[in-house]
Amino acid sequence: MKQLVKIYQKYNNFFHINWFITNKCNFSCEYCHPFNYANTSPKFDINVYKNFIHRILNQIGNKQLIISFTGGEPTSLDWFDEFLDFLIENNVKIGLTSNGSKSIKWWERYRKAFDWVSLSFHAEKSNISHFINIIDTIWSHSLVSVRVMMHPKDEYFKKGITLYKTLKTKPFITVFSVEKVIIIDDWLTDDEKYHVYTSEQKRELHDDDFFYKRQTGTPEKSLYEYKMPIDVSGIYQTDDGRFNEQIELNTNLLASSNENRFYKWKCFGGIEHLHINDRGEIWPTACLQGNMIGNIKNDFTLPKDPLICEKAFCYCATDIIISKHKDFENEKI
């Protein structure tokens, strides 16, 4: 038997910001919580965001700043293009979660801007051919993943299946993943639960729910450059007290195997990672452990000491990749 005792950056020197930048969205999907498209987020001036980036860069030293944008729909913000241009000029690595609704012209303009793009397909609103055209546009420049949101209504469910099967036959020469995503009913309430699909839908879901392509070829970036810049390593302790290392720790498997239990561990949220919500509040982690650090519109100081995790499980993928370890006494790990 072995037990995970440490997650850390072995080959990286990054500072990651997970940024829920707005609850404005041009979609209003039936299964989505209304907050995600309510458009009630404060309207900050673009210079507030730019000044915040300057403050972060001044405090993190020689670390590589990486920002993962989510929402809402980040690209629906009027000033988002200007902010992207600013980040590119300042050598910030960028990841984007998007519904893919922007025009192909927009994606052509910014296809080199993103290190990775996570595209969510919403069958109520999304167009299959447009969605595939986006992937055709960006695949040779970004790591691409697709989340097919499996709408319970049969017509939309079948539309999602059609996209999934079409993408599986496309000869993209890239690192590329596609998954079917089960809808959560009553999301963000005390009654949230996975949707119960019909028997036929269940067969479609579980017969083939994920695929991953890693093909050789000659894209503009090498396969090595497609590696996620936020990969982490893990240290395991065996029953006899020895420590073994696992390079490129699979954080999704940690969650599925219930290894995401870090209660009372030291967590480096705030030291190498921040979560920012749509109100501009700065937190060390997405699960809001520790104290709020400040707001993007004001001066702030990043913490120097790790926080102690008080949660039984770590559910957020961006929180799992934060360096953390058991608080061993008199032992080096």
Give structural notes.
The chain is an alpha/beta fold and 333 residues long. The protein has a domain at 122-225. The chain has helices spanning 46-60, 80-89, 104-110, 128-138, 154-169, 199-207, 251-256, 317-320; strands at residues 2-8, 14-22, 64-71, 93-98, 116-122, 143-150, 175-182, 184-185, 193-194, 210-214, 233-238, 243-246, 266-267, 273-276, 281-283, 294-295, 307-308, 324-325. The protein has a 10-stranded mixed sheet. Helix 1 (46-60) runs parallel beside helix 2. The protein is globular. The two termini are 17 Å apart. Residues 215-227 have low confidence and may be disordered.
Please give a handful of descriptors for the protein shown.
10-stranded mixed beta sheet, alpha/beta, 23% helix
List the helices and strands and how they pair.
Elements (H helix, E strand, L loop, with lengths): L1 E7 L5 E9 L23 H15 L3 E8 L8 H10 L3 E6 L5 H7 L5 E7 L5 H11 L4 E8 L3 H16 L5 E8 L1 E2 L7 E2 L4 H9 L2 E5 L18 E6 L4 E4 L4 H6 L9 E2 L5 E4 L4 E3 L10 E2 L11 E2 L8 H4 L3 E2 L8
